[in-house]
Amino acid sequence: MNINKKSLLSFLILILLFISCKKEKKEEIVVEEKKPMNILFIAVDDLRPELNFYGAHHIQSPNLDKLAKESLVFNRAYCNIPVCGASRASLLTGIRPTRHRFLNYSTRADVDAAHVTSLPKLLKENGYTTISNGKIYHKNNDDSLAWDNRWFPKGNIRNYKLEKNIIENGSANLAMGGASSHEMAEVDDSAYFDGEIAQKGIEDLKMLKNKNQPFFLALGFMKPHLPFNAPKKYWDLYNRNDIELPESYVRPKSTPKQAFHNYGELRNYGNIPKKGDLPKDLAKELIHGYYACVSYVDAQIGLVLDELKRLELEDDTIVILWGDHGWNLGDHKLWSKHVTFETALRTPMIIKVPGKTKGQKTDAIVEYIDIYPSLTELVGIVTPNKVEGQSFVPILEGYKPEKDWAVSKFKDAVTLIKGDLFYTEWTKDDGIAYARMLFDHKTDPLELDNLAEKPEYQETVNQLAKDLRIKWGKDFLK
């Protein structure tokens, strides 16, 4: 009888253990896997790294400053092409420009890089909701299959509000009614495109909050692109009497003539002379307008970031902010982009990764094709083999980067950025240089003394020429 009781007891214990194990396994099965991080992808047109967190203290941008304190700030980020359409197509496909690929503002990624899966397309294929608001690609319908939704504000692209400018500009795509203080309107922030883009982004965040899948929300803000349209209150933040022309407001004779242009983008506007240097008062007015537009777009970005926090999404969302290229504000007596001076190539770029960033800064050299593989690594997606960029995630982890160079191109000019050296060659299809430019930023940060033709630098030039041809990409001359 005792044996039977013991056997029965053992049997009951085995049954209880079996039930317990089954219950544990069942509980393990129903535990939901944490969804990948969201990505808030903020592009700003024509934004220079002339901001407080880059050491400049005359532009009021409190929201960008706050984001920088929560991010990794790249002191040396460079676009691969200093023109909007080409820069964006290269960044979003992760591949380099060549002699015949990614050439100008009207570039389309789905034409020049049809063989590559773009970043938004890859994310969409991996379960992300992908939304493009405002100017992400230059052409709103570019790479259309990559997006669940695309939206752009309605109206004339130059977005004038003052009646005089609307009449003079008509429906033309190129504005002829004044570039700067002629458009100082007493209007609300939402009157201009960037205000609409911010509000659309806020509404999308509310919608995405309730979706059970990660999102890639891309917001492309228009300012500080010309014309300098911003509500009057942002102009009023600055006293024009305090604005000075840049220290580099000169064209040195040692610099090749190929390095300069007639800033045709600006010459399209009615109050800009068709040739020659700008009058100093007009130059200061343009700088004033640029500052006002940066403060305006800063306020709109702040609204979106505040909503991200209010919706309790910021701990689950990577935020990356970048300008599509630099912009000349009188540097070398130039305006706009379209050159390979550092003022057109160096860009603002910051990334906030929850749990990893807290206001760090890095002097590592990164280029825009590096953004694609970095974001895919951060969200755990395999990067396609065709992507030519190199992930900067090791920098986030505190490691020294393997790469210390970048290559940028505009038309015939190709620039190798390596350490403190900026080396540019102008070449034709045969790859042979017909003009050269070399600056050492350690001794000449304003790029006023071209070293390329000086006898004592010929060995350095020859080595940089070899490096450039190795690093500009295997398909460059095709």
TrEMBL record:
Keywords: Calcium, Hydrolase, Metal-binding, Signal. It holds the Pfam family Sulfatase. Residues 38-381 form the Sulfatase N-terminal domain. This is Sulfatase. It comes from the Bacteria. PROSITE patterns: PROKAR_LIPOPROTEIN. It comes from Algibacter aquimarinus. Its cofactor is Ca(2+). The keyword Calcium applies. Belongs to the sulfatase family.
